Fold:
Amino acid sequence: MPTPDLLTPDFLSQLERLSLVARKPVRGWAAGQRRSRKAGNSVEFHDYRPYGVGDDLRYVDWNIYQRTDRLMVKQHVDDEELCLHLLVDASASMGMAGQGAPQSKLAWATRLAAALGYVGLVSLERVGLGVMRERVTEGWPPARGRARVMPLFKFLSGVQSGGETRLNESLTGYAGRTRGSGVAVLVSDLLDAGGYELGLKALLERGFEVHVVHLLSAEEMQPSLEGDVRLVDQETGEMRAMRVDRELLQAYQEHLNTFLARAEDFCKARSIHYHRATADVAVEQFVLGPLRGQLLT
Structure:
């Protein structure tokens, strides 16, 4: 299968052997490919629901179709579908790469989204996508099947950074518009003066199992600036001249450590899976390392 530059063929072959993990039971809107952790057995009928694009025709009740001319799918008490929601921050701050960096934060984020989306789609899970700037403006609702792999890759390859970050608004909007729930993976630098807490709480209230991949550049983690510099806010355009010395760098590091600790503590206190990454680390290394056993198996 031809692939864009997002993922190498060797990495794709490794992803083929992985599957997604949900820590808590997640009920989807279609008969799924996994067995539930809840009690029940696969022949215990639960309910009907309308047929949706991508549903397995084996679960259609053809007797109902003959009587009503409507396609209805049978659900069983232990049939589950893990629906993966990929939420990518594409605000202007995500376009930062840093001196000598091989890629921007957004490029790293789209490659991670492509890898996770690929695992979900080849495992016949539903995968949805939301690209966030001021709000969720791009993407598509959850869909399933290998046929969605190339459209996903093509779309992610064209995502550009721009606009301000409004995580509370965009996450709350996504949670409110999305049918059902599932596993939501937010990839963001969390650099939003308005905060992100209300948005993450909105996902939790809708029943999502939430993973936050907190992504910063190597330059943000350890700035190499010194002397007289002019700093420009990538989102607001505000410019500030300052002299960078050891004292200022120490104050910055203390502020950064507080910012990181606050984000991690907020997530852990609410059973949100928190993962920290820097854009100079290979996506392959992150997926096959820290995410194994947490989101992938």
